[in-house]
Amino acid sequence: MSDLTLIKKHYSFGGTTEFYSHQSSEIKSEMKFSVIRPKAALQNPNNKYPAVLWLSGLTCTEENFVAKAGAQRYADQYESFVFCPDTSPRGFDFNGEHDSYDFGSGAGFYLDATERPWDQNYRMQSYLIKDFLKLIGSEFPVDSKAIAISGHSMGGHGALTLGIKYPELFSRVVAFSPIVNPINGPWGQKAFTNYLGQDVENWKKYDACELILEQGYSKKIVIFQGSADEFLEKELLTDNFVKACDKKKVQLDLRICDGFDHSYYFISSYISEIFKNS
Amino acid sequence: MSDLTLIKKHYSFGGTTEFYSHQSSEIKSEMKFSVIRPKAALQNPNNKYPAVLWLSGLTCTEENFVAKAGAQRYADQYESFVFCPDTSPRGFDFNGEHDSYDFGSGAGFYLDATERPWDQNYRMQSYLIKDFLKLIGSEFPVDSKAIAISGHSMGGHGALTLGIKYPELFSRVVAFSPIVNPINGPWGQKAFTNYLGQDVENWKKYDACELILEQGYSKKIVIFQGSADEFLEKELLTDNFVKACDKKKVQLDLRICDGFDHSYYFISSYISEIFKNS
């Protein structure tokens, strides 16, 4: 018995773009997500298809990516689903939860909070790994061995950290403008202090650079990064990930995109790459 | 001496997406617009390129189309500029101007108002035909004989009415989900009453069906219309345009898109068509 509720469905290119809500046991609240269903899956719904789990950045909801990235055309072409969860729990009203763009609602950072009051509901890592992947597998015709993880900025951080920690769950990692070293940037430091407490040791399992140094990674990691990204030097810290991968001999395919910034104009320009296996 | 002010510029695909403001003598205020500059125009800025003038729908600004339609890729492919003006004057505060989504700010209806207080500034038709086309010609490397006019919903109404009235200025007309007969729909009736007064005779020069019946049109008109469009029967009234074109032997290429609705998911699915001459 499905607990999915279809909110709306739009025809898009040869497929559909769909919005759902469901009850999450990890978040203990309703969560929303969007889905791009490719043309092939409408024509042959009994086949299994690859998928991309896309994690969005600060302030985003489940809608930004499907509205702005232009991925539907390529989803048809590569016969792939795309799943876009929301970026934080919703429906709560904790002290300070809705006061800033870089913490609380819209800024879940894809981690499991340990500090009160966040620890009961701000469990985005467990939500994705336990609730959401299970839901994908049970409700959509997806090949569970061909789920790539991707995302932008805070979502790029999520893609890298979850992709590195759960290589058995995600076949590929393709990050756009990721926050690679949040323990050394203001966004990450603010969020981690509030969600995880003062001890920096507890932050490291949510830091892509630290994870690479700690455990390595046996597959290739792809990063698209605009050279004119306004957050590159202070928040993203891409160079630190290059150094960590070098040190641990992890294969990093870093694509510096000359002149591009941090916006969806950048994401849309390269979004076809999330579907490619090479 | 240009009065253009560049607000921001994003690299997008092989070209750029740019936002400007300028002073409009027709509107008597500052107006904003966006531009998609194709890759070819960056590489060979001394050539002349075709262009599409895109008119957006109710509630939109100069940003919606360039953020959501996914046109940049095709602008590169067809080596065409795209220009997206705002949908109304801004910066005023007339009584009732900002109270509803379908009248006043965000809802200029591409006409020249005759009723006070709108008549001094709500002059979107003259703005586009006099100020904006002149600006395109003087500030961008555009072939003035190859400017297509297109748009969505209220902007489809603008594309049809301006395209039909000024065939010497617009080489092609391609409308998406247009309001074809505003004098017979609630949106049009509300706006026209307020902008143009009670006399329906004065409304007819802003009604695509009436313009076809009055003057005909010697070129082909292309319309893309979703069959599941939630505004089709009450507001868009597509059938009335079919009848008018039949009666006046105007060549109408009406593409009914099965299952598509009124949203940008529809627009983006067919947006490549605005660049095609066939």
Short précis:
The structure is a homodimer of 278-residue chains. Chain A has 278 residues and is α/β, with parallel strands linked by helices.
Feature tags:
homodimer; 278 residues; alpha/beta; 9 strands
What is the CATH homology-level superfamily of chain A?
Alpha/Beta hydrolase fold, catalytic domain
**Helix run count of chain A:** 10
Q: Mean of the pLDDT scores of chain A?
A: 97
- What strand order characterises the main sheet of chain A? 1-2-3-5-4-6-7-8-9
> Uncertain regions of chain A: pLDDT < 50 for 5+ in a row?
none
Whole-Å distance between the termini of chain A? Answer: 38 Å
Q: Tell me, briefly, the overall form of chain A.
A: globular
Summarize the amount of helix of chain A as a percent range. Answer: 25-40%
- Write the H/E string of chain A, N to C: EEEHEHHEHEHEHHEHHEH
Count of domain modules of chain A: 1
Q: Report the count of strand segments of chain A.
A: 9
Rg calculated over all Cα atoms of chain A: 18 Å
Assembly type of the chains comes to homodimer
Q: Which structural class best describes the helix and strand composition of chain A? A: alpha/beta
Return the CATH architecture of chain A. 3-Layer(aba) Sandwich
The portion of residues forming beta strands of chain A comes to 15-25%
Please name the CATH topology of chain A. Answer: Rossmann fold
Q: Largest sheet of chain A at a glance?
A: 9 strands, mixed
CATH class placement of chain A: Alpha Beta
Most residues in contact: chain pair? A-B, 22 and 22 residues
